[in-house]
């Protein structure tokens, strides 16, 4: 007697391989969250986002700050459609992102995270992952925008230098700049910077921050930050707590208000001045 196993392949709710959905001919990069709620199916008792409404326009930088678990990274995950919001909607240029082709949407967004993932290959290989078919000239142009070209040229093998498994042959600042180049090579209209400098020492942070400031020009940028000194120049800072948007404004406006943002900045400054 032969036993046969039947495998049922369930189509994912958010399918990055699907050809369905809008692919607007012109993509500007205006983003809006309208009354967004989010709850993980596995934790229905916990509301991760609660009626969050915010928007930003092309060329502007917004920052998301707040205590751990306040919902900052979840906002980025919803924009990337790793999840869909439970209520409300997220739009890009007025289109509900649930109506937009998933793969196309993600191609418009460059992501730089706290711990960049580099693969065991050359520097060129890692940057090229950001855009299929990129030429060597494209790779070097992206590296220049990311303040990476000069240090790469100092290696004996230059762009053919192997980064090692998980990028072990590169310093933290070098890995981050390679990741920025990979994010920029597709010329994304939106940049998501999720704690992009928090794991770096002060010297590397200054170089990477300069690269990020250049990368943000002309793009819609969302910065998730724990180190609040990195968000002072943002056009609008949104302060979250327990999934709710508590206050919004520029750094000076929020400091003058002496609310949650003021307390976060003051407490962090005291810790920096008097480390344990």
UniProtKB/TrEMBL annotation:
Entry keyword set: ATP-binding, Membrane, Nucleotide-binding, Transmembrane, Transmembrane helix, Transport
InterPro entries, per the entry: AAA+_ATPase (IPR003593), ABC1_TM_sf (IPR036640), ABC_transporter-like_ATP-bd (IPR003439), ABC_transporter-like_CS (IPR017871), P-loop_NTPase (IPR027417), Type_1_exporter (IPR039421)
SMART domains the UniProt entry points to: AAA (SM00382)
Any one GO cellular component localisation term in the record: mitochondrial inner membrane
Topology relative to the membrane: Multi-pass membrane protein
GO molecular function: ABC-type oligopeptide transporter activity; ATP binding; ATP hydrolysis activity
Subcellular location: Membrane
Ranges for domain ABC transporter: 31-267
SUPFAM superfamilies in the cross-refs: P-loop containing nucleoside triphosphate hydrolases
PROSITE patterns (alphabetical): ABC_TRANSPORTER_1 (PS00211), ABC_TRANSPORTER_2 (PS50893)
GO biological process, one term: oligopeptide export from mitochondrion
Membership in a protein family: Belongs to the ABC transporter superfamily. ABCB family. Multidrug resistance exporter (TC 3.A.1.201) subfamily.
Name of the protein this chain belongs to: ABC transporter domain-containing protein
């Amino acid at each position: 007697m032969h036993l046969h196993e039947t495998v049922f392949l369930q189509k994912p709710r958010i399918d990055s391989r699907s050809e369905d959905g809008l692919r607007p001919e012109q993509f500007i990069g205006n983003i809006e969250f309208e009354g967004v709620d989010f709850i993980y199916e596995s934790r229905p008792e916990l509301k991760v986002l609660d009626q969050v409404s915010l928007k930003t326009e092309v060329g502007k930088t917004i920052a998301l700050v707040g205590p751990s678990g306040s919902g900052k990274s979840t906002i980025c995950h919803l924009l990337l459609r790793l999840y869909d919001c439970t209520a409300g909607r997220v739009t890009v240029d007025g289109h509900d992102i649930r109506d937009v082709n998933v793969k196309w949407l993600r191609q418009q967004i460059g992501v730089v995270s706290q711990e960049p993932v580099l693969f065991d290959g050359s520097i060129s290989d890692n940057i090229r992952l950001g855009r299929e078919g990129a030429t060597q000239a494209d790779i070097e142009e992206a590296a220049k925008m990311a303040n990476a070209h000069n240090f790469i040229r100092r290696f004996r093998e230059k762009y053919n230098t192997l980064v090692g498994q998980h990028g072990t042959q590169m310093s933290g600042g070098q890995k981050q700049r390679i990741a920025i180049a990979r994010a920029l090579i597709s010329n994304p209209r939106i940049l998501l910077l999720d704690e992009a400098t928090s794991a770096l020492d002060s010297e590397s942070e200054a170089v990477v921050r300069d690269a990020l400031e250049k990368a943000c020009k002309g793009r819609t940028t969302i910065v998730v930050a724990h180190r609040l000194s990195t968000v002072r120049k943002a056009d609008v800072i949104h302060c979250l707590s327990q999934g709710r948007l508590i206050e919004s404004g520029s750094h000076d406006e929020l400091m003058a208000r002496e609310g949650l943002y003021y307390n976060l900045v003051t407490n962090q400054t005291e810790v920096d001045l008097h480390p344990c």
